[in-house]
Amino acid sequence: MHQRHLASAAEWVKERSHLVRGVTFATIQRDQPYLFIRLGTYLERADNTARILSVKTRQREQADLVADYYRLGAVLRSVSSLEAYQDIYRDAIDADRVAELLIFSARVPRSLRFCVDEICEILERLPLRSGRTARRLAVQLQARLRYGDLQEVYERGLYDYLERFIEYRNPKRILIVTYCVAIALEQGLLFASDSRTNAGVDHVSTFCKMTIFEQPGEGAIVLLNSGNLATTQQVVSRLRKHELIQACPLTAMDSIFSVAELVGETLRAVIAHSRGETIGQSDVDYSATFLVGGQIRGEAARLFLVYPQGNFIESTADTPFFQIGESKYGKPILDRVIRPDIAMAEAVKCMLVSFDSTIKSNLSVGLPIDLALLKQDDLRIAQRFRIDLDDQYFREIRQGWGQGLRKVFNELPAPDWLAVDREPPLPSDSQR
Q: What is the pTM (predicted TM-score) of this model?
C-alpha cells in the first residue's frame, strides 16, 4: 500500500470497527457469547496499551525532550486517550502523568486498571463451574493496579513493570507440545523427535529436543524431552554440569538404569525449584517428561520413560516403544507394526508414518524431525539425520500413506444392514 493511502485505509478500518462494535452492543443478547466478546475486547485492549507504552518507553531512553513530547502525544493518540489526558490534567504532556493515566486510572477506558476491572466483573458473571484460575489471576492483577502507585513502578522500572504485566496477563510459558518416539529393537534403539515449540499460536519456534551423550567405544545415551522448555533445558544443563563436577561422563556410569535414575532426580529437583520461585503462579505447568535410552559397555541397550515425578519405567518385549507429547495420533500404526524383531529400516518407516499422522492432525507438532540410530553393541550413534520439508523420502511416505489409506478405505465393503441405496420394503397388511 502506498504511504499516501495509509491514513485513509486506517480510517476505513476504524470506522468498520466502530460499526461492528455498535451492531454488537445494539443487537446481541446479553448472554455468554456477549460476555466472551467483551472479555476478549478488554484482554486485547489491556495488552495493546501495555505493549505500546512498553515500546515507547524503550524508545524514550534515547530521545531528547522535544522528541519525548511528541512521542508521548503519539502514545496517547494511539490509545485514544489524548482528550482524557487533557481533561484530567489540563497541562503539558508529562511522562509520569502519561504512565499514571494509562496504568492506574479507573476512568480511562484504555488504562490497564480500567480493563482489568472490567475483566474481573465479566468473569464474575460467567458460570462458577469453570475458570477459577482465570478469576484468581484477574483479582490478583486487579489488586496490584488498584493499590499500586508510580513509585512502585519506577522502583522496578517502567519497562520491566509493563513486561511483567504482559506476562502476568497471559501467563503462558514456552511449552514443548511435541511428539517423540523411542523404539527398542533386537537390532538396537531408534529415536525420533519433532522440533516445534509453542506458547500459543503467536509464538512458535524450533528447538531440538534430542540430546546425545556419547563416547564412541564406551557408550552412547540419547535423551528426548517433552514439556516445559525451561525445565528441560535446565535438566540437560545440570546433567552436563554433573559430568564436569564429577569428572565422569554419563556413559561411564554403571548402567543406563543409573542414568535414568539421575535424570529422574534432576528433573524432580528442577521442577521443585521452579515452583518454589513462583508460588503465586500455581497455574504455570513446569512439568516435563524424558525418554532415556542407550547402551553402556557391559550391558545391552535399554530404554526408559522418566515421568515428571522422577520415577520411571523400562521397555519390555511386550512394550517395545515409548511415546511422549502428542502420542494419540501416531500410536495406532505403532501398535499394529512395531515388534522387537522387525528390521530397523521397517521401524524407521513405521515411525515416519506415525509422525505424518501426528503432524496431519495437530498443528503444534511439525518438521523438522530429528532421528538417531543406535545399533546393538556398537556403543556409538550409528546415524543421526534431520528430516525437513525438502526431504524427498518423507514426501513419498506422506503421499503414499495418504493414497494407500484412501484406496483401502474405498475397497472396504459397506455395512449390509445399512440399506441406504435400497428401496424401502412394502408395508405388510397389518401395517396398512
A: 0.62
208 Cβ partners below 8 Å, 6+ apart?
193, 195, 370
Over residues 186-203, the pLDDT tens digits come to 999 999 999 876 544 445
Instruction: Please tell me the distance from the alpha carbon of residue 16 to that of residue 10, in angstroms, as a whole number.
Output: 10
- Chain segment 199-223, per-residue pLDDT in tens: 444 455 678 899 999 999 999 999 9
User: Is the preceding omega at residue 127 within 30 degrees of 0, hence cis?
Assistant: no
Q: Are 141 and 169 in contact (CB under 8 A)?
A: yes
For residue 414, the SS3 value is coil
| Spatial distance between the Cα atoms of 405 and 397, rounded to a whole number of angstroms | 12
Vertex 428, ends 426 and 432: CA angle to 5°? 95
CA dihedral 251, 264, 208, 381 (to 10 degrees): 20
> Residue 349 in 3-state DSSP?
helix
Q: How does DSSP classify residue 264?
A: H
Spatial distance between the Cα atoms of 114 and 346, rounded to a whole number of angstroms: 61
Q: How far apart are CA 360 and CA 21, in angstroms?
A: 37
